Amino acid sequence: MSGPGDVPPEILGRLRPICRELPEAYEELAWIGIRWRIRTRTIAHVYVPDLERYPVYARHMVDGETPTVMTFRVPLEDLLGLTAPGFPYFKAPWGDDVAGAVLGDHTDWTEIAELITDSYCEMAPKFLVARVTLRPPGS
């Protein structure tokens, strides 16, 4: 099984500022990797999957390397449009509204910020959602 230290620090360095800007969101270690939550709901989870235990991720390898993956919530009406084109997005093998993204050098971090914000808005109480403003991370 992979651990929190398996997530490349440069990826954590990009995700943390995005998630810190979301009202009352917090980071915690998960059973694999790191996740960000609002209350008890996960808004984003980043990890390096164990391909022997979870072979479904083998198809998302990049240049023969195990992928770094982030899962997040997507409004049902947007899920197919996001995942149908394929790489770097995919439908997670669990949950009706869960998508995944393969993260790496190819990642559009502005789009990831928008997707995490949308995931937050799906999971957070409405009074916290009202406090969200979409802006570039760190601005």
Helix content: 25-40%
How many β-strand runs?
6
Q: Note the total helix count.
A: 4
Instruction: Tell me the major beta sheet.
Output: 6 strands, antiparallel
Straight-line N-to-C gap: 36 Å
Q: What is the structural class? A: alpha+beta
Low-confidence stretches: none
Please tell me what the overall shape is: globular
Approximately how much beta-strand content do the residues carry? Answer: 15-25%
- C-alpha Rg (nearest Å): 14 Å
- Order of adjacent strands in the largest pleated sheet: 1-2-3-4-6-5
Write the H/E string, N to C: HEEEEHEEHH
Mean pLDDT: 89
Keywords:
22% strand, 6 strands, 4 helices, single chain, alpha+beta, 139 residues, six-stranded antiparallel β-sheet, globular
Summarize the structure.
28% of the residues lie in helices and 22% in strands. With 139 residues, the chain is an alpha+beta fold.
Characterization of the model:
With 139 residues, this protein is α+β, with helices and mostly antiparallel strands. It is 28% helix and 22% strand. The chain has 4 helices and 6 strands; from the N terminus they run H-E-E-E-E-H-E-E-H-H. It has helices at 9-20, 76-83, 109-123, 126-129; strands at 26-29, 34-38, 41-47, 68-73, 89-91, 98-103. A 6-stranded antiparallel sheet has the order 1-2-3-4-6-5, with helices on one face. Strand 2 and strand 3 (41-47) form a beta hairpin. Helix 1 crosses helix 3 (109-123). The protein is globular and about 45 Å long.
